[in-house]
Amino acid sequence: MTRIRLAGRTVALGGALGLGLGVAILVVAMTAAAAAQAPARFGIGRPATPQEIAAIDIDIMPDGRGLPAGRGTSADGAAIYAAKCAQCHGKTGKEGPNDVLVGREPRT
Question: What span, in angstroms and rounded, lies between the C-alpha atoms of 95 and 101?
Fold first, then answer.
């Protein structure tokens, strides 16, 4: 028989239901206690600077926004894509482990 104390009263619960409910109440109480003790911040890290964000902001839109100034051919672009993009996005932009670059998401 499991006995739990609720609102100042002791309640007896029998069988598996009592044990399961007792464990659930214990877990909730322990979780609440742990959350109350956790710091709001851990005191590590810092916000990224605008320069750090700009250094990794390499999004290029389908209309070409985000590309650097200049010119080139599709053959030039293919060589750059093979060297810098294909490893993450796949040979054709569809089969890589990271974001699909070609096609519509979500796929229907």
Answer: 9
